[in-house]
Structure formats: structure tokens, C-alpha cells
Amino acid sequence: MCQESTKFKNVWTTHSASPIAYERGRIYMDNYQCCITSIAQQPRLIYQKSKCAKSEKIEDALLLECPLGEMLPSPSDYKASLIVLTVQNWLLRLSADSGEVLEKVYLAGSCCKFFRYLSWDTPQEVMIVKSAQNKLPAAARQAGIQQTVLFYLAVFQVLPLSFIGMLEINKKIFGNSVTDVAVSNGILIVMYSMGLVRLYNFKAILEQFMEQPFVLGQEFNWNGQVGVVGKYPFGLPCNIKITDTPPLLFEASSLENAFQIGGYPWHYIITPNKKKHKGVFHICSLKDNALAKNGIQDMKCCSLEPDWIYFHPDMSGRIIHVGPNLIKVLKLKEVKNRADQMEIAEDFTIVANRENCVNNSVTVTASGRVVKKRFTLLDDDPEQETFKIVDYEDELDLLSTVAVTQIGADGRAHLDFHCNEHGSLLKSIPLKESWDVTYSHEVYFDKDLVLHIEQKPNRRFSCYVYQMVCDTAKDDDS
User: Could you list the residue ranges that cross the membrane (predicted)?
Assistant: First the structure.
């Protein structure tokens, strides 16, 4: 991968009027109706389904992969499949190899809309389907009718697909200022309009408030309704009724509800809940809310795009802080002679290549006249090399960065591989296509593959695929 002779060659480019998605070696186009493998030397078509009706449009998808060491009821369960959510409240499991529908679950009738929100509670084990926020019709609101149920959450065990339960997020239980909810790693995260974030034990909620378990395909008689679980028109029963506020695990106030947990021992990252603190991050102990030594991280960058921070996905407990021209990898360590206190120390930094950039506010001409600039160059000025994407490739243990420089209409980007342990640069790959910083971009680095998806105005999408080529001499000769 990192040898000097190894090159990455642009082997395939395509354009589309609909979004392009990528999942583990598969490129999906035309609303998941077309699937292309990117694993082969030249991407090739796996399947192409006929165009679907608007009512069958897919809004979100998750890739399911077979768990190791488990006996599964159907041979199709051992192959990768795609769970998709349609606009008409259908949850479908599709074969990743053919697009064939393996299972269909109807989620709910007209009471709520399930679309766009598929996520993992526990990856490849427990899946959450969240409804759109419930809103009363205008006439009902004018009549003074109050909407108390904000969201519905449907919970599934996957492979084999089984229904755990459905619950509602109600203002009467969680408060009137709830704006959003999420579930991750057994924790229910409730967000409020004033920046407050509250955490509850989701597994305990399922166990405590479950009224009756149900099985997909089973006939039921529930609150006067008779039907089949997961079949049209009844869908799924709301069998988890939260009747009292669950015990609170933790709460914090943060700007824009931004809140993350990670590190070892457990710490969390927030931004103080005032606009003037945007771009300032506090790293605190989850045990006692104590601010770590050097726990206030502020790059003091002047830029249009804010810097961002997150716990390193390699499970090392480190923290990655990304600014326009600087990437800091931070680590938690014990304060000397203070085993009960942690401090934030710099592990390594990656700096953008800006040695030719001069940003003097005062210039002296040849005649000796002093000229003062009326403006200061921003840290993420497009004419300077700026970091746009930072990612981690777990199978190769490499940290990848995308840096972009745009002069006029021509933008140039390169993907760099860094040692994840020390940050040293191992390889740089120039991307051949022009990169406009005003467009939306995604870059995937997956073993010997680099894939760049670009969204241009008017819903025009492009996909560029690069493959690793080791024997460059023969390739150039041919």
C-alpha cells in the first residue's frame, strides 16, 4: 500500500441525476435499483432492477452482515443484505447480491411516518427505526389541541430479523422542550431546545415498560385492533408504554446539543452553551464532571467552516481535533502524582503544506510606500491548502486526510495516508478530478480502493473510483 512504486489509478467514473451511495465494496445508484461492485479491477454491474414507483422510493439503508459463530434459520441470512426504508413505511430486507426482496415489514399506518431514520443501537445486532417528528394539522393546532407524542422508535434484532418493540417519546414524560432523540450503545439520548442533553438506560426502559412481546407474522389482538404483526394495514403495535420518567443516567448542557462520550477512563466533550464559545471544546470526566487538565481545546482559527473534534474510532481513547490547517491527535493520561486526575496531552500533529503562503497585513512597495490590507485572509481561504476530510481505515490502521487547494475555478485535492500511531506521512495520492470546495464531497478509503462521490448543484452526482496498481512500469508501457 505505502510503497513508492504503488500508484492509485482512476479506473472508473460515472455521473448520475440521483444520489450515489457506497457500502463495503458496492456502489448503489438510481435509488438502490442499480448495484455495482467496486472490488474488481474494473467496476462491474451486479444487478439492475426496473425503475420503482415513487411510493416505493428508498429513503435510508443499512448493510447487514452475517454474525460469526451463530446458527441462522435461513440460508439467505448468511449472505450480506441491505435493510432499506421506503417512503410508505415499509422496511425491506434485500439481497446485496441480487436486490431480491427477502423480507417485508410494514411499520405503521397513518398515525406516523417512518422514513429517513435508520440507525444502529449495537452495530450488526440491534437496529432503530425512528419516525419523523409528529406534527398536528394546522386546523388542530388552531383549535388548541396539543401534540404530546413527538417520535416513535421501532426496535429490531437483526439476522434473523425480529421485532423487539415500539415506544413513543412523549412530552408528558420527557418534557415540553424535547427537539430530538437518538439511541446508541444501549443509551437513549434526548435533546432539548435549550442545548440540554439527557441520557437514559435504553435497555432498562425496554425491560421495565414492555407490556407484551410480539413476533413478526403473528396474529394479534391489541387495544381493540386485530391484525398480523408487521403486515399491512396494521403494522407494529406500540407495546412499550413509558408511564413514568426513567432514572436519569447523566445530563449536560452544550451548544447545539453537541455531546460525545469516549476515552479511557470515560470522558465527554461539549461546547459551553453560548454562541461566543463556538469552536471551544471542554473535555470532562464522566464520573464527576471534572474538567481535565488542559481540557479546554481552542484552535482560535478564523474560518468560514468550524473546526471539529471527536473520539478516535480506533478505540484507543484518543481524540482527533481538526482545524483548517492543523490536525491534532490528543491523548488522555494521568497527571503526575495525581492518579485521580487526567490531563490532555498532544500525541502528534499533522500540518497542512502552507510554506509558500504569505499573509502580511502590511506590504512595502519598491518605492518605499507602505500599503495596508483592508482584510485578513481566513484560515480556510480556498487558495491555501485546507483539510476537508479526516478518516480512519481500521483494517490497515491508517489515518487518511483529504487536503484541498483551490485557485480560481480549479481545485486540486490529494489523499494522504498517515501512520495512525505516530502521524508520519506514508503516502500521498493526487486526485485527478477538479475539486470545488463549494460542493459536497465524500471520500472512502477501503483497503486497495479510493472512491470519491461529489454532489454538484441541481442534484448532479459524480463518482470517481481509484484502484491500487503495484506494477506501474508494465502499466505505463502498455
Answer: 149-169, 181-200
Confidence check: pLDDT of 203 > 90: yes
Which DSSP state fits 384? S
> Which residue type occupies 412?
R
Question: How far is Cα 77 from Cα 249, in angstroms, rounded to an integer?
Answer: 36
Cα 7 to Cα 10, 431, 449, distances in angstroms:
10, 11, 11
Backbone angles phi, psi at 41, to 5 degrees: -60, -35
Q: Supply the pLDDT for residue 478.
A: 46
Give rounded-to-5 percent helix, strand, coil for the chain. 10, 50, 45
CA–CA separation, 128 vs 148, rounded Å? 21
> Which residues are within 8 A (CB) of 6 and not within 5 positions of it... i.e. 6 or more apart?
427, 468, 469, 470, 472
Instruction: Give the amino acid at 32.
Output: Y
Which residue pairs from 432-440 have beta carbons closer than 8 angstroms and sit at least 24 positions apart in sequence? 432/10, 432/464, 433/10, 433/13, 433/462, 433/464, 434/409, 434/410, 435/404, 435/406, 435/411, 436/406, 436/409, 436/411, 437/382, 437/386, 437/388, 437/404, 437/406, 437/411
Q: Which three cell numbers stand for residue 248?
A: 436519569
What mean pLDDT do residues 350-365 have? Answer: 68
* CA-based nearest residue to 35, from 61, 11, 1, 3: 61
Asked whether residue 368 carries a pLDDT value surpassing 50, the answer given is yes
Identify whether the C-beta of residue 463 lies closer than 8 Å to the C-beta of residue 455: no
Question: Taking the CB of residue 331, how many other CB atoms lie within 10 A of it?
Answer: 17
Neighbours of 43 (CB within 10 A): 22
State the DSSP code for 306: P
Q: Return the higher-pLDDT residue of 340 and 276.
A: 276
Return d(Cα 304, Cα 384) in angstroms, integer.
13
Average pLDDT for residues 415-440, to the nearest whole number?
95
Q: For residue 439, which phi and psi values (nearest 5 degrees)?
A: -90, 165
Number of H helices, E strands in the chain: 4, 36
Mean of pLDDT values over 331-351: 91
How confident is residue 409, by pLDDT bands cut at 50, 70 and 90?
A: confident
Bond from prior residue into 233 cis (ω within 30 degrees of 0): yes
Please write the tens of the pLDDT for every residue from 114-135.
878 999 999 999 999 999 988 7
Across the chain, mean pLDDT equals: 89
- C-alpha count within 13 angstroms, C-beta hemisphere, residue 397: 7
How far apart CA 181 and CA 107 sit, in angstroms, is 19
**What's the rounded Cα separation, in Å, for the pair 131 and 60?**
12
